[in-house]
């Protein structure tokens, strides 16, 4: 699956599902956007493909006006774009945490390579200065 940064580019790509509303309007959509949004939509797409084949997938949504279906699809496409953005931010945050851990590990190795009296003396200076600072 390709994550699109531009919502218009996603809509311009080949849609593999047709949604037919009660007023007869046909709306093109992408199955992976619909399926990722709802397990109910995923089952509807799966049933439609089983009956008609993978090339022709038509999902009927009767009892709902086409304007409402279009608004719902707009919400789904916007939220999938939002999810892609959030995944990118999570990856960035993960890298930052990883860099922080590597720096901490390097500092620990640096301390481990020092002689014990030097480390004890440094920690005593830090402890005693903070103890006197509190009083």
TrEMBL record:
GO biological process: regulation of DNA-templated transcription
Pathway membership, UniProt: Protein modification; protein ubiquitination
InterPro entries with a match to the protein in the record: BT1/2/3/4/5 (IPR044513), BTB/POZ_dom (IPR000210), SKP1/BTB/POZ_sf (IPR011333)
PROSITE patterns in the cross-refs: BTB
Domain BTB: 15-79
SUPFAM superfamilies recorded: POZ domain
Name the UniProt record assigns to this protein: BTB domain-containing protein
